[in-house]
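user: can you give me the structure for this one chain? tokens are fine.
assistant: on it. calling the predictor now.
[tool input]
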Amino acid sequence: MAEDRHTAGAAPAAVDIDISVEAGAWPDEARLNWLVERAAGAALAEAGARGHSELSVVFSDDAHIQFLNAEWRGKDKPTNVLSFPAFPLSVGDPLPPLLGDVVLAAETVAREAALEDKPLENHISHLVIHGLLHLLGHDHEIDAEAEAMEAIERAALARLAIPDPYA
């Protein structure tokens, strides 16, 4: 339950979000702002985040994300979302002044949404939540961490009336 993750008496997190559309076929910027604000709010609430911070969300394309993935992760292929934390965080730490960047790739995101027969906006929301949770110190390298991260994702998506992507 979300209440179990919250710190008693702690003020909810407040995050200023900067959105940049660099490349790719995305919904209009006003719609992206709305999607990101909702997704980030749900993720922060479900993660029990506290403090004030800034977040950058970059909407790009496969070519750019492939470059970033090769440069930073040694994987020369596109992926749907990458997260670049400004500061190392452990789960439950107060928010730093700057969380970091979440970068999404248009072609991969659209292809996955079509293959999974889900609305593009739902998939964008899920990936923003996923990327933000990485910035908050969550990971999915081992099964227990993956289960915990996915539980927060499911709860955040449920707040937005988006079906469970793992079902």
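assistant: here you go. The radius of gyration is 15 Å. Helices lie at 2-5, 29-47, 62-73, 106-115, 120-135, 143-159.
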